[in-house]
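=== RUN LOG ===
request id: a7f3
mode: sequence -> structure
chains: 1
length: 643
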Amino acid sequence: MSKIQVLDPITIDKIAAGEVIERPASVVKELVENAIDAGATAVVVEIKDGGISFMRITDNGCGIDREDVRSAFLRHSTSKIRSVDDLLHIGSLGFRGEALSSISAVAQVELITKTKDQTFGTLYRIAGGKEETLEDTGAPDGTTFIIRQLFYNTPARRKFLKTPMTEASHVGDLMTRLALSHPHISFQFINNGQSKLHTSGNGKLKDVIYHIYGREIASNLLQAEYDTPGLKITGFLGKPIISRGNRNFENYYVNGRYARNSIISRAIEDAYKDFTMQHKYPFVVLHIEIDGEHVDVNVHPTKMELRFNNQQEVYNAIYSAVDQGLHEKELIPHVEMPEPKTAVQSTPESKPVAQSTPEPKTAVRSAPEHNLEYFMSKMKERVLAEHEEKKKKEEAVTKQPVNTIQTIAEEKTPYMQNTAVRPQISRQTTAPDPPKQMELFEDHLLTREAMQKYKVVGQVFETYWLVEYDNSLYIIDQHAAHERVLYEKTLKSMQTREFTSQMISPPIVLNLSMREAELLNTYMDRFTRIGFEIEEFGQDSYAVRAVPDNLFSIAKKELLIQMLDSLSDEIARNQSPDLIDEKIASMSCKAAVKGNMKLSVQEVDALIGELLSLDNPYHCPHGRPTIIAMTKRELEKKFKRIV
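=== RESULT ===
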């Protein structure tokens, strides 16, 4: 049996470093938080090779006195607290005194620092926990850390690091959150010589959001303010139209500290529940100020987790802040309509514009009533012409024969967008014997003979089609059915490479974060296989020049971002290529015909024919049934024809 012995200091430091330092982003987090605590107004972070080989963090804070430099690298040495009582009222981001000791134990560290009162700066080098140099040097006020060869003396830890691109994306996400948490500080992030982020530090949170996420998100924000004794909430809420497919855009900061907490996330999502669809998550940036005695930040060495001793109060306050912000304004989305094409008709009363001569200004002033009347009459003519043209187009669409349901969906896309806002009629089943879902098709509706004999009765609620066959009544959801058809078509085309690309002009330009760009590059061959044509379009931008033909009618930036978000959610599950194909194919369902949309009998006949030829026509890709059945006997029992 082995004897118990005390470990040597170097081994202790390396073990402790494993708790605090997981990857380059952990180093950057600790050092930038130290810079913030030092009162810096500008912080520059530069990395190379994802931060594995080189990191430099520079700030203009108060600096470190020469006599304190050695002590700063000792375990549990800190200037933030003096006793256990100070843990109840922590006002700084750092307080454990483990960061510098842990970093120096697993990397080569160079420190250059100078206080305002000193004439010369101090240069200090330490590697693997062993001091190498301490000398004077010329330096500006502030502190610079240079970290080289992270985990150089712990190969087992180094091999668990990801690719440089992945590690750099983690640092980029961290800098984004730090910039949002402290808008009064100017942050700059440089990756391999390229500036990826540079905020102004003017103290305006909305300017930081605009700089990081762009105009689209910044223009769809609602302000959130809530103040109660002991707790204050400020920030911005994204309108439901900019909801995303994962929680990466839920940004909340407690006393200036970015952390994860299930209570806060649940309060935000519960307040958004009535505004977002299932599996959609909101965009928020909230600053929460709470008394230090109610929050415990000393839960984990990385200080990324929080605990509250008044969880219900925190939940209620955050829920109220978000709920009030969402109800402050009317959140009716604005639909952008294309400009109508108006035909220029020459009448005996009016001359063409090209032949008209400008009237003198005096004439305009002398007859204002005539000009107003003339203008109103012309406006009336234009409105009537537009209505007539729209009416002719609708009549032409209803009379036009259609071979496949896909062309119908493309032609009726504008009509679907207008009619989809009508409320659905609620359907409640109070009968003791509800219709059953068709699972095995006992009456063999899938046979060729059946496809020739079934009878389309009609449509109810502009969503469900009634089909009579043999002694059964089948009810088909047109939206779910078309979703299934498009899903299996897309999946089959990816497996057999039978796809058709449709060029789009102008191309869709995507401005992606580093993580989103990495996802796109990782699965680029998958997107290319099904008909996308995507190419780089400047720094962190990509141009989509072609899309699959079945996505042409709905090819928009939101759909492509949603695809990347869904892949990001599942990336940790080690997806197989088939799962990724299914994820992308499910997005093609967006082109399906919607409920509350009128279809002709010929269109529905084509849809049913395609549906019944599929391998699995019973459910849509999201699990909802496409067909349910009710027998003649059940109907007769309802009407008491049989007992």
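=== NOTES ===
The radius of gyration is 32 Å.
DSSP finds 22 helices and 23 strands in the chain.
=== END ===
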